[in-house]
Structures are given as C-alpha cells and as structure tokens.
C-alpha cells in the first residue's frame, strides 16, 4: 500500500509561513508587547453556542490523582490570556494552535493557528489602528495600497439588505430575504433576530467586504455581544470589530468587557441556548470570572486567523494549500 506522507503545501509556503511569524514577532517586539504561552489543554472551555469543541473522553490526571473532570482543547487562548492581564502582566500577544470541532472546508481546518493580542489602555479605535499597521506591514503592497475601510455594522447591513440591524421586524426581514433570493432563510431563522443577522450578513453582506483591500466592520448590534462591552453612548451596540479581506473573515476583536456580573449573565444565557440546541454541555469558567472580579485592566484585544492570512498573501484558494499537514493528511 502506498502511503501519502508528503506535505500538502509547497516548501515555498512553509518558508513563507516562517517569514510571516518572524515579521509578526518583530512587529510586537518593537512595540514592547510581551509574547506569552497559555495551555492548549484546559479544565474549562468557552460557552459560545455556535462553536463546538474537542474534549477528553477518559479520566484525566489532575493534582496527582485521577479525576473524571473533562479536559478541553481550547478554541481560543482568550480566557487564559485575560487571567494574565488581570495579573498585571501588561500588553501581550500569543501565536497559538486552537481547535474547533466540525469545522472543515475551504477556509476551515479543525486545527488552526491564531494570533491573539491585547493592548492595555487601548480603546477600539486604537486597536483598529494597530491592526491596520500590522496588516500593512504583512500584506504585499498590491493587496494593501489604500487606507483600510472602516464602516459600522448598521451602515453596511442597511447598504446590502435595506434593513435596520438594530430594530428587528420579522416581516421586513422575511420580505428582504425573499427579494435577495434567500427564501429558505424564513425556515432557518424563524423569529430569532441573531440568526437573521448571521444569515443575512454571511450571505448578502460579507461577500462584498474587503474586495478593494482591508475592511473593518465595527459597532455590532448588542444582541451579538460576545465579550465586548456596551457602547457608552448607545446601549444598542457593542464595541466589537471584525476584519475582512476579499470577503474572508480574518479577525474578531473587542473593547473588552470588564463587568463580572454582566459577563456571567452572558455566559449563562449562552449556556441556555447551547442546552436548547442540544449542544455539548459546558459550565461557566469560574477562574476567568475570578480574574475579571479581581480587576481586568482597561484593554482591547483581537484574534486573527494566520492560516487565512497566509491564504490571502499567497493568493491560494483553499486552506489546505497553506498547511503542511491538514486534517485530511495529518
């Protein structure tokens, strides 16, 4: 039997990845941002109802004894990094392997590389400035020849759907979906505002984003909060930004929520949604909430998918083309 053992991507792509990682480290070193490492295998996991994860199925050894508590492969280093922030380590970044179950396709591999960083004292606008500076350094000139576009979620959503993202009217959303050629959205989304936003954004808005360079969409509806804080001037929106290039979602960032009670309430709401969807049960990460309670410094943070960024830089059409050993060849 012939065994396929060779890397899936070219040696040039392996070298290009090494160059990309070197340039990222130089960028943050010059700005006195500390590189850190946090565990990939942890006792807790996030509560996001739309992300599935890998977990251990056997008893684990904890504190020198066998415990039936599950261990989880992390979908993001966010919680552990924020525990470091609460310990006053200052601005930090990490290049980490993360894992998401059930995600495989043109832009997804179950194991992928994430760049995540947090800047103490930064608001969302300052974080967006730094994202633009980093991408301008990493992307070829022809892919970043103009200033990054910055548009609010409400404006871009209205531009491509004709709808108000902040005021949900089911009849209007259904009518718009039919006009846009997505009658199936009615059965998929029912009367759930969040599902409608996700469906229409991904199908009607996202393909138009970043086709002339980098595009940043900010000020998301408050019903899509994740770990972002509410806007101090408008409680209908949260301080969140997503980065797109050529219709590809590259990054997701926040002006970080520091209110422990509000964060616990969001976790509990997400757990209820997970349970109603039949997703794997999770518990609130009490260590993370303990860090928030002790005092998370005022900060903004973002995570960028480096495999997707490498796809854009090398002009490849499938994530397998930039991975030495994708899941199909691992």
| CATH homologous superfamily (4th level) name | Bira Bifunctional Protein, Domain 2
Strand content: 15-25%
Could you tell me the number of beta strands?
A: 12
The H/E string reads HEEEEEHEEHEHHHHEEEHHEH
What is the percent of helical residues? 25-40%
CATH class: Alpha Beta
Cα separation of the termini: 17 Å
Give the overall pLDDT as a whole number.
93
The CATH architecture name reads 2-Layer Sandwich
Our Rg estimate from Cα atoms comes to 20 Å
Number of helices: 10
The name of the CATH topology is BirA Bifunctional Protein, domain 2
* Total domain units: 1
Low-confidence stretches: none
Shape: globular
- The multimeric state of the shown protein is single chain
Strand order of the largest sheet: 1-6-7-12-11-10-9-8
Structural class by secondary-structure content: alpha+beta
Can you describe what's shown?
The protein has 330 residues and is α+β, with helices and mostly antiparallel strands. The protein has one domain (11-148, 213-329): Bira Bifunctional Protein, Domain 2 (BirA Bifunctional Protein, domain 2). 36% of the residues lie in helices and 20% in strands. It has ten helices and twelve strands. The strands form three sheets. It has an eight-stranded mixed β-sheet with strand order 1-6-7-12-11-10-9-8, sandwiched between helices. The longest helix has 20 residues, at 11-30. The two termini are 17 Å apart.
């Amino acid at each position: 039997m012939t065994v396929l053992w060779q890397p899936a991507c070219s040696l040039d792509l392996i070298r290009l990845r090494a160059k990309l990682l070197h340039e990222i480290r130089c960028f943050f070193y010059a700005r006195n941002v500390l590189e850190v490492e946090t565990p990939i295998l942890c006792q807790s996991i996030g509560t996001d109802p739309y992300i599935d994860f890998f977990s251990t199925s056997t008893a684990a050894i904890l504190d020198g004894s066998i415990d039936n508590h599950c261990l989880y492969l992390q979908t993001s280093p966010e919680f552990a990094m924020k525990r470091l922030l609460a310990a006053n380590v200052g601005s930090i970044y990490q290049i980490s392997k993360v894992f998401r179950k059930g995600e495989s396709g043109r832009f997804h591999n179950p194991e992928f590389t994430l760049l995540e960083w947090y800047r103490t004292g930064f608001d969302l606008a300052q974080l967006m400035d730094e994202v633009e500076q980093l991408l301008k350094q990493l992307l070829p000139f022809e892919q970043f020849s103009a200033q990054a576009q910055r548009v609010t979620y409400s404006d871009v959503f209205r531009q491509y759907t004709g709808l108000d993202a902040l005021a949900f009217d089911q009849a209007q959303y259904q009518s718009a979906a039919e006009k846009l050629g997505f009658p199936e959205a009615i059965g998929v989304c029912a009367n759930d505002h969040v599902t409608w936003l996700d469906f229409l954004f991904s199908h009607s808005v996202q393909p138009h984003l970043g086709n002339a360079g980098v595009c940043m969409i900010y000020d998301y509806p408050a019903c899509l909060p994740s770990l972002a804080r509410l806007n101090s001037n408008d409680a209908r929106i949260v301080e969140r930004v997503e980065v797109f290039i050529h219709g590809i979602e590259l990054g997701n960032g926040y002006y970080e929520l520091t209110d422990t009670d509000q964060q616990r309430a969001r976790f509990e709401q997400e757990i209820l949604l997970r349970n109603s969807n039949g997703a794997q049960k999770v518990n609130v990460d009490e260590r993370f909430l303990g860090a928030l309670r002790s005092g998370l410094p005022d900060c903004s943070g973002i995570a960028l998918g480096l495999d997707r960024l490498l796809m854009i830089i090398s002009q490849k059409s499938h994530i397998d083309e930039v991975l030495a050993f994708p899941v199909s060849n691992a």
